[in-house]
């Protein structure tokens, strides 16, 4: 079946602009996760959704970052007033159930470049 | 707190050589899960294996094998008879009950297999 998909694959924006990154999880997966991967680093957790609600947003770096999942499927990560330090690959993952035993499957990521 | 350390930043070997990627983790939880992911140049994280803290049995899957030792808090990954297609960045990750749903990743090891 289809894996996790993310759009766009690349996004270039100017400092101060607003961006939205989209994630479409594997069909039937109830849990959805966002991670951020800076160059040469491992992914870092941002936020996780169980269904429509954000169950843990402890990884969001500040209030410029926000994510939604209104119907419990597709999620959008929103970044306001982008800064050059926001440049990274944003990865989305989903799992069938939100338990620590479950495996998270990742999408190809969105590479965000803030000029 | 949870932490994963992959001390080898880069490894380069000649095809057909065996290579071991090291992973050391830290957690106070008694229940936890360890993962290895492969990130090829395309960028997508590919799940390789999950191991829970109660199962120290080593695992072999084709040319891949994993050695889990709780006594040294290590979960090492060996590729036997390496191939050029094995070239990628490999990440070790930890997930704990206390840490909720997030994966904590190591910095990754860039593996290059030369023909």
Structure explained in plain terms:
The complex is a heterodimer of chains A (115) and B (115). By secondary structure, chain A is an all-beta fold. Chain A is 0% helix and 48% strand. Chain B is mostly beta strands and 115 residues long. Chain B has no helices and 12 strands. In chain B, the strands form 3 sheets. In chain B, strands 2, 5, 6, 10, 11 and 12 form a 6-stranded mixed sheet that branches. A 4-stranded antiparallel sheet of chain B has the order 3-9-8-7, with no helix packed on it. In chain B, strands 1-4 form a two-stranded antiparallel sheet. The termini of chain B are far apart. The mean pLDDT of chain B is 93. Chains A and B meet through strand 4, strand 5, strand 9 and strand 10 of A and strand 5, strand 6, strand 10 and strand 11 of B.
Short description:
The complex is a heterodimer of chains A (115) and B (115). By secondary structure, chain A is an all-beta fold.
Low-confidence stretches of chain B: none
How many helices of chain A? The count is 0
Radius of gyration of chain B: 14 Å
Largest sheet of chain A: 7 strands, mixed
Which tags fit this structure?
heterodimer, A: 115 residues, mainly beta, 11 strands, globular, B: 115 residues, 6-stranded mixed β-sheet, 4-stranded antiparallel β-sheet, 0% helix, 53% strand
Topology (SSEs and partners):
The complex is a heterodimer of chains A (about 120) and B (about 120).
Chain A: E1 5-7, E2 10-13, E3 19-24, E4 31-37, E5 44-50, E6 53-56, E7 65-68, E8 75-79, E9 88-95, E10 105-106, E11 110-114
Parallel strand pairs in A: 2-11
Antiparallel strand pairs in A: 1-3, 3-8, 4-5, 4-9, 5-6, 7-8, 9-10, 9-11
Chain B: E1 3-5, E2 10-14, E3 19-21, E4 24-26, E5 32-39, E6 46-52, E7 59-61, E8 64-69, E9 74-79, E10 88-96, E11 104-105, E12 109-114
Parallel strand pairs in B: 2-12
Antiparallel strand pairs in B: 1-4, 3-9, 5-6, 5-10, 7-8, 8-9, 10-11, 10-12
């Amino acid at each position: 079946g289809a894996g996790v998909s993310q759009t766009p694959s690349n996004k270039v924006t100017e400092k101060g602009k607003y961006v939205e990154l989209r994630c479409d999880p594997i069909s039937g997966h109830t849990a959805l996760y966002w991670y951020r991967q800076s160059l040469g680093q491992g992914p870092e957790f941002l936020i996780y959704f169980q269904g429509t609600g954000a169950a843990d947003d402890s990884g969001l770096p500040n209030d410029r970052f926000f994510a939604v999942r209104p119907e419990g499927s597709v999620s959008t990560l929103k970044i306001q007033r982008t800064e050059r330090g926001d440049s990274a690959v944003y990865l989305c993952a989903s799992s069938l159930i939100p338990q620590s035993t479950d495996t998270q499957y990742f999408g190809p990521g969105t590479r965000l470049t803030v000029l | 707190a949870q932490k994963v350390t992959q001390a080898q930043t880069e490894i380069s070997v000649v095809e057909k050589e065996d290579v071991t990627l090291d992973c050391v983790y830290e957690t106070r939880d008694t229940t936890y899960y360890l993962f290895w992911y492969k990130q090829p140049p395309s960028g997508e994280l590919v799940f390789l294996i999950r191991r829970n803290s109660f199962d120290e049995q080593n695992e072999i899957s084709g040319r891949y094998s994993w050695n889990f030792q709780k006594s040294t808090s290590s979960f090492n990954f060996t590729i036997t008879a390496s191939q050029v297609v094995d070239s990628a960045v490999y990440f070790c990750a930890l997930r704990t009950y206390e840490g909720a749903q997030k994966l904590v990743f190591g910095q990754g090891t860039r593996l290059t297999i030369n023909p």
